[in-house]
Amino acid sequence: MEIFFELLPQAAPFKPRSRVFDLKSRLDWGEPALTIVDARPRAAFNECHIMGAIPLAADELVARAQVNLEVDRDIYVYGETDEETEAAAASLRGAGYKRVSEIVGGLAAWKAVNYEVEKTAVAV
């Protein structure tokens, strides 16, 4: 019976740095126990963001995360650049979050492979 379970497909393992393909694999696998955090300014988030991401801008990231996210939750984070992503991830890790993964290439990489994005309607 053990061999049968070894042959079943499995989701990609959690890593401290993830390619967009890794995150998409988890989403396609149907694993709901993760959160995608967009650490860019709210205006950038409203323009376009990874489908299902939540806005937690870098300047309020830790304070809002502490209110809304469990410290052992799988968190995938991205910013404008890989450097901003790394800084946001470091802030979360410094606040005690244990499972934080940096999405390498962020939104640009996500869009480059034509994965689904959302735009927030803004009243004019």
UniProtKB/TrEMBL annotation:
Organism of provenance: Rubidibacter lacunae KORDI 51-2
Transmembrane segments: none
Matches recorded under PANTHER family: FAD-DEPENDENT OXIDOREDUCTASE, PYRIDINE NUCLEOTIDE-DISULPHIDE OXIDOREDUCTASE
Recorded superkingdom: Bacteria
Keyword Cell division carried by entry: no
InterPro entries: GlpE_sulfurtransferase (IPR050229), Rhodanese-like_dom (IPR001763), Rhodanese-like_dom_sf (IPR036873)
Keywords: Transferase
Name of the protein described by the UniProt record: Rhodanese-related sulfurtransferase
UniProt GO MF annotations: transferase activity
Domain Rhodanese, first and last residues per copy: 30-119
Coiled coil (residue ranges): none
